[in-house]
Design brief:
Elements lengths: L1 E5 L3 H13 L4 E6 L11 H5 L14 H8 L2 E4 L1 E7 L4 E6 L5 E5 L2 E4 L3 E3 L12 E3 L3 H13 L4 E5 L3 H12 L3 E5 L11 H13 L3 E3 L4 E7 L2 E6 L4 E4 L1 E4 L3 E3 L2 H5 L10 E2 L11 E3 L4 E4 L6 E2 L4 H17 L12 E5 L2 E7 L2 H6 L5 E8 L10 E8 L6 E8 L3 H13 L4 H6 L14 H13 L5 E2 L12 E4 L3 H5 L7 E2 L18 E4 L4 H11 L6 E4 L2 H12 L9
Parallel strand pairs: 1-2, 1-7, 2-3, 7-19, 9-16, 10-11, 10-16, 11-12, 18-20, 27-31, 28-29, 28-30, 30-31
Antiparallel strand pairs: 4-5, 5-6, 8-17, 13-14, 14-15, 20-21, 22-23, 23-26, 24-25, 25-26
Length: 559
């Protein structure tokens, strides 16, 4: 058998290596139009930021080592320019010699990846403007920063790669500005978690422009001028374009293969394209979202590597293993903060008409009495019918990745919030509390599901009427340090003795710092004849972050 793989990074290299492990005698050829194969794409920003200092650490395999270990013919700097499914041939061009030739195949695997979006803006081809997609891009950026002694950087795009680049440029001592066309950074997040991230970014002196867009670039004596839709003009020594990527479907479309509704290469559950002898993996393919059922693409190394293994199994053994899709579990370090998401965000569930409830909790990363505990915020979305977990989002520091992985596992297997309640974790004071943040997220979600806890959200303050009561149940000291306009202060520990100050006929809205004391206050009131009591999900802390981000330039809140 003769197998050809087009594209030799995550999905392609994984497919090739697995093919060899399953079939020692097959002829396997990998074509890669770039200079490098099987490199750590996700590590590129950290090499630029000198967190990773040894460039060789970026390479999992080289063309030579891959050939030696797996006996695979690796052809770098060779671009496949066409596929003829009828003849079962590909046409390739050696970019060094210019030679053009054909190769036959029995089975073909497409792993072309995604290509960065580079809009036709005025001046976008000026020196000092880069995209980051491969090792060559990384080398150019790194050399440019040092050669030009860059002091100011503008990152266009507030997605995962854009934020990683901003963090690493900031770490090099550059003055960094992030420009995002949307209303928040990290589009997969719901706004409340994004607001926490944005407040953290601003607190470090990084400039953040939201709801803004670049209209063009101009070369100046001092470097670059970045023109914004708002009319602002920013000075920059270097610009990183991280506007996004799109599936590279040119070869597939040219070969007459089906392109799906999500604009990726269509594959079935066996990763087989519309041609039974051609499979596809990685960033370029689309599949059904396991939660919404809608077509989607994902630009993540984890799914691509797993797809490569499944694809090879099916090629050699005859479609024996199904791919069940990705829930887009992703994580990023943002200026020291860890932020991650898994599943389908509440805003996307709303857009697809999926009924759900949302709960937000904040807990310590480990036991509060053990030094170094830091606050971690977890938001979950779940079915109001059976408690099925649809999504989880985490923002924190130490241990946030561990909690996201746990939550992702529950989402992936269609688990429920009941599993979070019963989740048994490894506990010792340096690592967790007896009730882990995952348990706490489950406890609160279960209380909401069972009607023990009625909540309202940060953006529903306008539903509080003139006859309603808004009560801050924190301590007087906390109240005086900042409160929501219109709130009266009745600390939870005084509530039982002050019930006569409240009316059972009124709606009562409660908040504390994070939600726990508000829940306790609600339980007291609801068992004392007060039927219309609501607790602010996420508490004052979450409201403050969200409110600050909705105000122009994040101005100070009511105090």
């Amino acid at each position: 058998m003769k197998y050809i793989i087009i594209g030799a990074v995550a999905g392609g290299a994984s497919t090739a290596a697995r093919l060899r492990r399953l079939d020692e005698h097959a002829e396997i050829i990998i074509f890669e139009k770039g200079e490098y194969i099987s490199y750590a794409n996700c590590g590129l920003p950290y090499y630029i930021g000198e967190v990773i200092t040894d460039r060789n650490k970026l390479f999992v395999q080289t063309a030579t080592s891959f050939n030696q270990r797996f006996n695979i013919d690796v052809r770098v700097l060779t671009e496949v320019t066409g596929i003829n499914p009828d003849k079962k041939t590909i046409t390739a061009k050696n970019q060094v010699s210019g030679d053009i030739y054909e190769e036959t195949y029995d089975k073909l695997v497409l792993s072309p990846g995604a290509e960065p979006i580079r809009p036709p803006l005025p001046g976008i081809s000026n020196n000092g403007i880069f995209t980051l997609r491969n090792v060559s891009d990384t080398d150019y950026i790194k050399k440019y920063i040092h050669h030009h002694q860059a002091k100011k950087a503008v990152v266009v795009g507030g997605g995962f790669i854009g934020l990683e680049m901003a963090e690493n440029l900031h770490g090099l001592g550059l003055d960094v500005t992030i420009i995002e066309m949307g209303s928040q950074v990290m589009a997969p997040l719901d706004f409340p978690l994004a607001a926490i991230v944005q407040q953290h970014i601003r607190s470090l002196g990084v400039h953040l422009y939201l709801n803004n867009a670049v209209t063009g670039f101009e070369q100046t004596d001092g470097g670059l001028a970045v023109n914004l839709k708002s009319g602002d003009v920013l000075d920059a020594d270097i610009v990183i374009l991280s506007i996004g990527v799109r599936p590279d479907t040119r070869l597939a479309a040219g070969a007459g293969l089906k392109i799906g509704e999500g604009r990726g290469i269509y594959v079935n559950e066996y990763l087989q394209t519309s041609d039974p002898d051609i499979y596809a993996v990685g960033d370029a393919i689309e599949f059904k979202n396991p939660i919404t059922g809608q077509a989607m693409v994902t630009y993540l190394a984890g799914p691509a590597n797993k797809q490569g293994r499944i694809c090879a199994n099916n090629i050699v053994m005859g479609n024996v293993q199904q791919y069940h899709g990705s829930i887009n579990t992703a994580i990023v370090q943002v200026f020291g903060m860890t932020v991650g998401t898994a599943g389908t965000a509440s805003k996307h569930l709303k857009a697809t008409g999926i009924k759900h409830m949302v709960s937000t909790t904040s807990s310590g990363s480990h036991a509060g009495y053990f030094p170094g505990a830091q606050l971690m915020t977890i938001q979950v979305a779940f079915s109001p019918d059976n408690g099925r977990l649809y999504s989880a989002q985490v923002a924190g520091f130490d241990g946030a990745d561990k909690r996201l992985d746990i939550l992702s596992s529950v989402i992936k297997r269609n688990g429920t919030i009941g599993e979070l309640v019963e989740f048994e974790h490894a506990y010792a004071p340096p690592y967790s509390s007896a009730k882990d943040p995952v348990n706490m997220a489950g406890f609160v979600a279960e209380n909401i599901l069972l009607g023990r806890l009625n909540i309202f959200y940060w953006d529903e303050m306008d539903k509080i009427g003139g006859d309603d009561l808004l009560i801050d149940v924190r301590s007087p000291e906390e109240y005086l340090s900042g409160y929501i306009d219109g709130a009266i202060n009745i600390p939870v520990d005084e509530l039982r003795s002050r019930l006569d100050e409240l009316s059972t006929q009124k709606n009562i809205y409660i908040y504390c710092e994070a939600g726990l004391r508000g829940y306790l206050a609600q339980r007291i009131l609801r068992q004392s004849g007060f039927d219309h009591v609501y607790n602010l999900s996420g508490g004052y802390r979450l409201w403050k972050n969200c409110k600050a981000e909705t105000e122009q330039n994040g101005i100070e809140l009511v105090c």
